[in-house]
Amino acid sequence: MPLCIEPVQSQSKEIKGETMSGRVIVITSGKGGVGKTTTNANIGTALARAGKKVVMIDTDLGLRNLDLLLGLENRIVYTIVDVVEERCKLKQALVKDKKNPNLCLLAAAQTRDKTAVTEEQLKNICEELKKDFDFILVDCPAGIEQGFQNAVAGASEAIVVTTPEMSAVRDADRIIGLLEAREEIKSYKLLLNRVRPNLIKSNDMMSVDDVVEILSADLIGIIPEDTGIITSTNKGEPIVNDEKSLAGQAYNNVARRIIGEDVPFLNLEEDNSVLGKVKKFFSGLMGKEK
Amino acid sequence: MKDIFTDFYNTILGFFRQTEKKEENAKDVACNRLRVVLMQDRTNLTPELLQRMRQELIELLSKYVEMDKEALELNFEQEGNQMALMLSIPVLRAKEESEIEEAEEKEFLEDETDEKTLSEEKSDEEIEDETADCDEASEEENSEENSSEEDESVEVDAEDKEKAEK
Question: Which of chain B's ends, N or C, has fewer CB atoms near its CB within 10 Å?
Answer without folding.
Answer: N
